[in-house]
Write a structure and sequence with these properties.
By secondary structure, the protein is of the alpha+beta class. It contains 3 helices and 6 strands, in the order ββαααββββ. The chain folds into 2 domains: 55 residues, no CATH class; 52 residues, no CATH class. The strands form 2 sheets. The protein has a 4-stranded antiparallel β-sheet, with no helix packed on it. Strands 1-2 form a two-stranded antiparallel sheet.
Length: 125
């Protein structure tokens, strides 16, 4: 990554969400990650030939749900989010677009997370 020394981006799961990390020993980390994936899982983790800019990362960090039409909310609800990593609960906006469920920070309206509605398997009441 050009803007961060020792920075790298990992693209995750079928939604292709991107996560930015900085590590002093990133070459070592990536080498070991690829080696362990090959040795223990029998899979190959490719490395992109081209670098990504911070601007490109910010525009695509939500993966397949990064386009404006997927992030344009039709309806939004104020919610409290309860999660083991976040105690006490935190305020969020839970929004729906035509194809996605979007979690937003109410103070900044920034999209925290976006997932396709088709990936919601079940709602417990």
């Amino acid at each position: 990554m050009q803007e961060y020394e020792n920075g790298f981006v990992i693209e995750m799961d079928e939604q292709r969400r991107r996560h930015l990390f900085v590590c002093e020993l990133f070459d070592n980390l990536i080498s070991l990650m690829r080696q362990m994936a090959a040795n223990y899982l029998g899979i190959s983790i490719p490395v992109a030939k081209e670098a990504i800019t911070l601007e490109q990362f910010m525009l695509t960090r939500l993966g397949l749900c990064s386009r404006d039409e997927q992030l344009t909310s039709f309806v939004e609800f104020k919610v409290q989010k309860f999660a083991p990593r976040q105690f006490p609960s935190i305020k969020r906006l839970l929004c729906l677009s035509s194809t996605c469920i979007i979690e937003r920070d109410p103070a900044t309206y920034a999209a925290i997370c976006a997932r396709p509605l088709k990936t919601v398997h079940l709602v417990f009441l």
